[in-house]
Structures are given as structure tokens and as C-alpha cells.
Amino acid sequence: MKTHTLLLVALLFCGCRKAMVEDGHIKPLEESHYFANGTTARTPVEGTVPRGQLQEDTAFYQGEIAGRLVTGFPMRITKELLTRGQERFDIYCAVCHGRTGAGNGMIVQRGFPAPPTYHQKRLRDAPPGYFFGVITRGYGVMYSYADRVPPADRWAITAYIRALQRSQDARWNDVPEAERKELPQ
After folding, report:
1. Is the pLDDT of residue 20 over 60?
2. Contact yes or no for 65/57 (Cβ under 8 A)
3. Rounded-to-integer distance, Cα 69 and Cα 132, Å
4. Is position 184 within any domain?
5. Domain that holds residue 84
6. Does 53 have pLDDT greater than 70?
7. Does 120 map to a domain?
8. Is-contact 145 138, C-beta < 8 A?
């Protein structure tokens, strides 16, 4: 009986070597002799997409459809969306564009180049996809915010820019009739 137990214990310990613990534990960018380029990091296979990153909705993720700027919003404009847009605008955009979008933010007051005002005709006439694209890719001295601002927030900022534009160019007829009674004339 003792011999069988000793033999069983000996067999169990024969399979447990330090190499078994270390095998399969590869650190990123660690040197490897297994692959021809000498590294453990592998380049993803062309055409593969990380899980959850397919982004098939080009209107939402690129602001374009078949290479043309979208002329509407890929979601419903709600008070919550505009509030989120204002929060994100105040964080990322107001330092250059100013709180009203006039292009007179704090950075400009300190001597940096002024961005164009959102209230000029060219930008009032620009489709929403244009603003989304500029936030995504940058333009002129403005760098890309794609890695800082997720697509949903870029659309929220774009909606808020539209609200800023409307606020500076609003006419009496733009106000719904039911709400006109509450406003001073």
C-alpha cells in the first residue's frame, strides 16, 4: 500500500515542472524565436475588426454616406442630447470657439489663431456631417478629437453647435406660437 502511494505521489510530481507554469505566459512585445520577426506581438489579419468595433453605420461613425456629408442627424435631437452637447462643447470646444461659438475663446484671447465664427453664412449652411467630420479629423490648426470624443458625443456637440447658430440668428417666426405668449415683445 505504501509503495503504491509513493509511486502515485512520484508520478504526480514528475508532471509538475517550473516550465509548465511559465509556458503560455508571453508578455506583449517580448522577444520570441518562434516567429520570423522575433516578437510575440502579431499584426492583425487584414480585414479583421475587433469585437464591438465594426462601425457599419457610416452616417453615425463617419458623418458621411457614400462619400457625401450627411445632411441630417443619425439620431433624434432631444433636450438630453443638447445638454450633453453643451457639456462636451464647454470642455473641448469653448476654449477656442468661445461659449457662444463666436471664435473668441480664452486661447484666442491669449494670442493663438482665431477659429471662424459658427455664425457666418458658410458654416450656418454647412451640413451636420461637416462639423462631425471636422471634430473627427481636425481642420487647419485644429487637431483631431477622434481619440478624445466618442462618436455619440461628437454628434451631441454638432447638435449643440446648431442650437448656438439658431440662438444667434433666431427670428420671431421661429418661436412656436404657444411659447410666444411667454416672451417679451
Report:
1. no
2. no
3. 9
4. no
5. 58-170
6. yes
7. yes
8. yes
